[in-house]
Design a protein that fits this description.
13% of the residues lie in helices and 48% in strands. A hairpin with a 2-residue loop joins strand 1 and strand 2. The protein is flat, with a radius of gyration of 23 Å. The termini are far apart.
Length: 163
């Protein structure tokens, strides 16, 4: 009889703890790459975003990162990071939510506002010279969203130019 009670307690505890474990935020992210094309309809030229299939040097591509909190608790300080693709340059001023935006120049190890992204190089006299990074040197882009409510969704975006 004691075995049956012990087994029931273990099963009950499993359900109790598994429900507690599910009570948390779960932010999912989907990424799409699009470029603008001009569509002529009834003699009117209209810009339209279409999925990227092929790119050429000089093309501009927009990346949209859609996020959704499918959990049952709010997500606080949700971090959304994305690498700037190789062979591209971030187009300044094209990112959404610029107040929450930072960049990396070290492969995503650290993030800062553009004016604070600095590095040192040896100057002509051998001394260190401090420089501010340019968009060509950005390796990653990152947003921190203060709160993503349970069930809520949104998106952030940025553009790059193909080298």
């Amino acid at each position: 009889m004691k075995k049956g009670i012990l087994c029931s307690v273990v099963v009950f505890s499993f359900f109790l703890f598994s429900n507690v474990a599910l009570a948390k935020p779960n932010v999912e992210i989907k990424i799409k790459a699009e470029k603008e094309t001009i569509v002529v309809k009834n003699g009117q030229k209209t810009p339209k975003m279409v999925p990227v299939k092929k790119v050429n040097s000089g093309d501009t591509v927009q990346y949209t990162l859609s996020y959704k909190n499918s959990g049952n608790e709010d997500a606080t300080n949700a971090v959304i990071s994305d690498p700037i693709p190789d062979g591209t340059i971030y187009v300044p001023g094209t990112a959404s939510n610029e107040n929450d935006l930072t960049f990396s120049i070290d492969g995503g190890k650290s993030f800062k506002k553009p004016a604070l992204l600095t590095y040192e190089v040896k100057g002509p006299g051998g001394g260190a010279e401090k420089r501010t990074a340019t968009p060509e040197e950005y390796t990653h882009i990152q947003w921190v969203i203060n709160t993503v409510k349970a069930g809520a969704s949104g998106n952030v975006s940025f553009k790059v130019k193909i080298k």
